Amino acid sequence: MEKDETIEIRWHGRGGQGAVTSAELLALAAINEGKFAQAFPSFGPERRGAPVLAFNRISNVGHIRVRAAVTNPDVVVVLDPGLIYITDVTSGLKQDGIVVVNTPKSLADIKSELSGPWKLAVVNATVIAREALGIPIVNTAMLGALLKATEILGLESLVEPIKERFGPRAKNNIDACHRAYEETLMAELSVVGQGPRKAFETERLLSWQELLPGCVVIEAGNAKQYRTGDWKSQHPVWDQQRCIKCGICSLFCPEGCIGQNKEGDFEANMYYCKGCGICARECWTEAITMVEET
Amino acid sequence: MATKRIGMEGSFAIAEAVKLANADVVAAYPITPQTHIVERLAELVANGELNAEYIPVESEHSAMSACLGSSAVGARTFTATAGQGLELMHEVLYVASSLRLPIVMTVANRALSGPLSVWGDHSDVMATRDCGWIQIFAENVQQVFDLVLCAFHIAEDPSVLFPTMVHVDGFHLSHVIESLYLLEQEEVDKFLPKYHHPYALNPDKPVTIGAFGPPNIYTETKKPQDIALRASKKVILQVWRKFSELTGRYYSPVESYKAKDADVLLLVMGSFSETAMMAIDKMREEGQKVGLIRLRLWRPFPFDEFRQAVAQAQLLIVLDRALSFGGPTGPVCSEIQAALYPLETRPKIISFVGGLGGRDISVPTFEDIIRRGMAKAKQGRLDELEMIEVRE
Questions:
Q1: In chain A, whose CA is at the least distance from the CA of B96?
Q2: 271-290 in A: which are within 8 Å (CB) of B?
Q3: pLDDT tens digits for range A125-177
Q4: ipTM for this model
Q5: Which residues of chain A make contact with B217, given a CB cutoff of 8 A?
Q6: Distance from the CA of A25 to the CA of which of A40, A104, B142, B381 falls in 20 to 30 A?
Q7: Do B208 and A217 touch (CB under 8 A)?
Q8: CA A102 to CA A180: how far, in whole Å?
């Protein structure tokens, strides 16, 4: 980082993936290095799996005064591979900014999906996290990828904050962080995309004139429109040979999104399936496997 | 119209109004500081004179919460509270107004502890100033009866749908027996339309109320709430006009007494205004050009009517029955100052605080307040808040 520089980072993750923790650890590491830093989440309806944002500002200059979300980041970190398809993760990203993405895809494949005047860094953090920690919580791995891509801090500065946060689990997290640092690949994105830039559906927010007295919602059952299927990192797949059609999966599904199709086979409605894996766990003939989203 | 003047306690007059309004639900918590209002209503429900659901709840917080539910299903809902009880309701008051539930509540205005006090002043009201309810002050038992009836009409108007408080000074009105004219049931039935909430909870036509409002919508919910509360004044005026056609008794957001040619105006709220009138009469007899202004409508604040009422005066003396600890003046006076500040010509303002925790203000004391106010204005001592009759 330059002497007079302030870097702004936006983290895109899902509730439970540790985006907020990433931002916090990064800020603590920066402050330990003698820099000035901020970390703060965008507080929303904290549901596991729902898209969440967290923010960092890191400065060599002095105390950071602005207390508003980062809308023109220098760096964007995407913890969940699926997010680049449902949210505009590069929104407001500065010219020559950096996108750090967790993805099982190859650098070439992601390059064909993202375009703009930015640098790209990719790492398969989910695999690293599963192997190092046994769970797909990618925050510490993505910190390694971020530092490789930006060099804003020394990797060793993260060790103390990670130790303090994770205690007995710190070593595995440091391993994940280091491994991601080594495995992160960088490339320049092409400014001209392969096709028209993807248009993201953004929720239309009501104006004050459109709200009914008392903010009453008269459209019954409109929660059905809510695509909770966007939350999943895995989805269930049925082996119909093993399935004995007992229906236990549909009884246990907390979303109520499992039913029988015309052939009588059980399947999940992917519009609502959050990928929680309860069906696979409860299936006593082991007919259901959870498969990574790609 | 009933032509016979009868004697009745203020609390009972309120219960009578609620009975005549044929309230569907009364939820209340019967502990000190409560009043005879809900005690009498319990009796009326028990003996079959009022066909209502009476919900004896476990606290004032629950009383208001029960009112939310009953008002939301479209039931005409009433409760009464006072002092500490109002404070315990506090968070639910905001829910009632933001959900636009036209609950009617009488508040027997009392001081707040400590030291432990159940006696009258306006400390409890002032703490709820910003809770989004329509707030109306009564000055005598007749007004208490009239204004509670009007409150149902105002609150339940489809363009209003705001909960409404009628402020009744604790003890001075809640526990006093004086005379009033009641109304016949047929007259009330004709005056008061049926309550119909346009979005009432109904299993056959489900709606969501009380959803959460994240930062991207909360502001949009508050703007129309504020606009609608301000706009409710139009309906308040209409209802009071309609009531005057029925009874010949007129109510206005700001009321004056011998104020037309007055150079000096005293402003009070609630039951003390009638005592203050006596002082005005006396000083008028002595040839002093003094008058009285009474704020009947506290929320929405009647800016136009108020500015008009004080436009000709040189001096405005404001009596608060509550303190704003560490604040500029008494809470009413700071609102008055804010209301007049944008005007190029405005009266000088002097602030007094008195009548706290059930202490009376006598006619001579009111005269003294006016005289001292005039003297202080002459000396330019405009930035002092003075508490009257504090024992040295």
A1: A214
A2: none
A3: 999 999 999 988 999 999 999 999 999 999 999 999 999 999 999 999 999 99
A4: 0.88
A5: 205-206
A6: A104
A7: yes
A8: 10
